[in-house]
Design brief:
The complex is a heterodimer.
Chain A: E1 8-16, E2 19-27, E3 31-35, H1 42-50, E4 57-62, E5 65-69, E6 74-75, E7 83-86, H2 98-103, H3 111-124, H4 140-153, E8 158-162, H5 170-187, E9 191-194, H6 198-204, E10 207-212, E11 215-221
Parallel strand pairs in A: 3-9, 3-10, 7-8, 8-9
Antiparallel strand pairs in A: 1-2, 1-4, 4-5, 5-6, 10-11
Helix pairs in contact in A: 3-4, 4-5
Chain B: H1 4-33, H2 39-51, H3 54-65, H4 70-79, H5 87-111, H6 115-123, H7 128-157, H8 160-166, H9 176-185, H10 189-215
Helix pairs in contact in B: 1-5, 1-7, 1-9, 2-5, 3-8, 5-7, 5-8, 6-7, 7-10, 9-10
Classes of the chains: A alpha/beta, B mainly alpha.
């Protein structure tokens, strides 16, 4: 059996105005949680992984594929990185129904087939009954379910969640955390989950990475081990 | 009562609206998203028709596309008819005059679209052209439509540039605004008043229709 490459390898340095980010860690598989105070560079890290920002130095590898390498000038476009993104606000397209928002992410098949696949994903996140509603007719929690279905429907190699539930009330957050755990486990997609809520971090983390002002200050395991290095 | 000026005006302004809606939106997209050399210059150049007196704009177009000009000759050898003093000239004049209105509105609307929406669409794997057509433009649609409406109004009302390039040939290039002027010059006050009222009604009605179109889209 060949060893599976780690879900994510990151070793980057990036400067944004006065802010310097220099972090290195590895996520072997499962659900990694990235915590730390606001302004510690968590969202910037996700942007670097997703390819929305080009790192000044260092490299990013997803599932063993190098997608960014500052030294070689390599920068794979966001489109080709196969990452699923979920932000704090769901960022659904307001002019499309829930189902058509998800169908946008399905990469192959006829329009009919893609809509069918989309419905399947909506069912898996418990939002099948909302398929024909537009984002304006959904609650915050429902929108995040749809956003999660959309992120998964693209067949991502890595799911990136940036404080996806922080605008929701506690019961809804608990429900959605459980959903993320089960869906990620079922779909076998590794995920990096950003939060500043310690309860959320404890409940979700296989691996827990803690940031403090642009540096990794601690790496701790929940269930799985990690070979993360500190810089 | 001869209604030819009304039909000519509608024909010209609708053609112009179609041309400008496509070119202005594409240009607005380019200015909003493109990062290339000479972008600032291009933008300034495209806005010149707003600040130039219409007759001056028309004069330049007349010189540039006259029967002895390079463009004019090339056009005539291909199409078989000149640009100047034809309806083609009227369309050209009104297009250039109204293009910047659509361009600027489209650009502003496209720039106002939340870039994170476009980023998440890219993460889903959509190529740039699909991001543009399925995300950016649908979200910018109201602003673009407002620009198209302004362009239509500008085209319908153009006098100076049209008279310079297309002239004032009754039944052939005499559009409504020119016909109003003509009627006043001829002392035909009744005709002038009637034409003015009809032109006003068409302009207001068109804007009302476009306004309704914009509202009918569910946010």
């Amino acid at each position: 059996m060949t060893p599976t490459p780690p879900a994510l390898e990151l070793d980057v340095r990036h400067t944004l105005g006065e802010f310097h980010l220099a972090v290195a860690f590895t996520v072997p598989s499962g659900l990694a949680v990235l915590t730390g105070p606001s302004g510690a560079g968590k969202s910037l890290t996700l942007a670097l992984i997703a390819g929305l920002v080009r790192p000044d130095h260092g490299r990013v590898a997803i599932g063993g594929d190098v997608v960014a390498d500052g030294e070689r000038g390599l920068h794979v476009r966001t489109q080709d990185r196969r990452v699923g993104l979920v932000f704090q606000d769901a960022l659904l397209l307001p002019h499309r129904t829930a189902r058509d928002n998800v169908a946008l992410a399905v990469r192959t098949g006829s329009r009919h087939k893609r809509r069918q696949v989309a419905l399947g994903w909506l069912d898996r996140v418990g939002a099948g009954w909302l398929a024909d509603r537009r984002p304006g007719q959904l609650s915050g929690g429902q929108r995040q379910r749809v956003a999660l279905a959309r992120a998964l429907a693209g067949g991502p190699r890595l799911l990136l969640l940036d404080e996806p539930f922080s605008a929701l009330d506690p019961p809804t957050r608990r429900e959605l955390r459980a959903l993320v755990r089960s869906v990620v486990a079922e779909a076998g997609v590794p995920a990096l989950f950003v939060t500043h809520d310690p309860v959320e971090a404890d409940e979700l983390a296989d691996v827990r990475i803690t940031y403090g002002h642009g540096r990794v200050v601690a790496v701790g395991g929940g269930r799985a081990g990690t070979d993360a290095r500190l810089t | 009562m001869d209604w030819t000026p009304l039909w000519l005006s509608l024909r010209v302004s609708l053609t112009v609206t179609a041309v400008v809606a496509v070119t202005g939106t594409a240009g607005g997209y380019l200015l909003a998203k493109g990062r290339f050399r000479g972008r600032g210059l291009l933008e300034a150049l495209a806005s010149v028709p707003i600040v130039l007196p219409p007759t001056v704009l028309g004069y330049y177009l007349l010189v540039a596309t006259g029967r002895d000009s390079v463009i004019g000759r090339a056009w005539e050898s291909v199409v078989g008819a000149p640009i100047v003093f034809t309806l083609t000239g009227a369309v050209l004049a009104a297009s250039v005059a109204s293009f910047p209105f659509c361009l600027r509105a489209a650009r502003a609307a496209i720039e106002a679209v939340d870039p994170r929406l476009e980023a998440s669409a890219r993460a889903l794997g959509l190529p740039e052209w699909r991001v543009a057509l399925q995300v950016t433009l649908p979200l910018a649609w109201r602003g673009v439509l407002a620009g198209v409406a302004l362009s239509f109004a500008r085209a319908l009302g153009d006098f100076g540039a049209t008279v310079m390039v297309a002239g004032n040939i009754p039944g052939r290039t005499q559009t409504m605004p020119v016909a109003v002027y003509d009627a006043v010059q001829a002392g035909d006050d009744g005709r002038a008043a009637l034409l003015a009222l009809v032109l006003s009604a068409v302009a207001v009605a068109a804007l009302a229709v476009i306004g309704r179109l914009g509202r009918s889209v569910v946010p």
